Amino acid sequence: MASCTYCGCDVTAHDPVYVEATADGERVPAGQFCNYGCLAAHIEEEGLTQGAVCRLD
Ligand SMILES: [Zn+2]
After folding, report:
1. 11 vs 52: CA distance, rounded Å
2. CA nearest neighbour of 35 among 2, 4, 8
3. pLDDT at 33
4. What pLDDT is recorded for position 49?
5. What share of the chain is helix, strand, coil (3-state, %, to 5)?
6. CA 10 – ligand 1 centroid, Å
7. Alpha-carbon span 27 to 36, nearest angstrom
8. How many Å lie between the centroid of ligand 1 and the Cα of residue 2?
9. What number of other Cβ atoms are within 10 A of residue 19's Cβ?
10. Whole-number pLDDT of residue 57
11. Is the separation of the CB atoms in 4 and 11 below 8 Å?
12. What's 11's DSSP letter?
């Protein structure tokens, strides 16, 4: 079972979204989520957007 990084549910029972990051130029799994809702909640809870803006208008 692939459990959601945010809520722990089985992501395959939903509409899963997978996140990857890079380490030494290689793509590595950084999380799996039931859907964009869980991904958005995880980002919000962990404050992952703080200081991570790539473009300021
Ligand atoms: Zn979830």
Report:
1. 26
2. 4
3. 98
4. 86
5. 25, 30, 45
6. 8
7. 20
8. 10
9. 13
10. 73
11. yes
12. G
